[in-house]
Amino acid sequence: MTTHAAHHELISLRDAAERFHISVKTLRRRIADGTITGYRIGRLVRVDLDDVEDELVIEIRSARSA
C-alpha cells in the first residue's frame, strides 16, 4: 500500500486568483515558467493553494524592523 506524505489542497485557477487578488493569466504564466506546479484533472487545471502562497506571497520587511 502506498501512502502520500504530502497533502495538496487543489483549487481552480479562478479561485486562487480571487483569493490572492491576481489574474488567472498571471497564474497561467507562473505555471508556464515553472514557478508554480499546475495539475490537470481531466480538462481542468488546478493549483496547490500552499504552492501558490509559498511562491507568490513575499514578506516585505521595513527598514525599522531590521
Walk me through what this model shows.
- By secondary structure, the chain is α+β, with helices and mostly antiparallel strands.
- It has three helices and three strands.
- The longest helix has 10 residues, at 24-33.
Question: Keyphrases for this structure?
Answer:
66 residues, alpha+beta, 3 helices, 3 strands
Number of helices: 3
Structural class: alpha+beta
What ranges have pLDDT less than 50 throughout 5 or more consecutive residues?
none
Shape: elongated
How helical, in percent, are the residues? Answer: 25-40%
Element order: H for helix, E for strand: EHHEEH
* Rg over alpha carbons: 14 Å
Tell me what portion of residues adopts beta-strand conformation.
15-25%
Strand order of the largest sheet: 1-3-2
> What would the average pLDDT be, to the nearest integer?
88
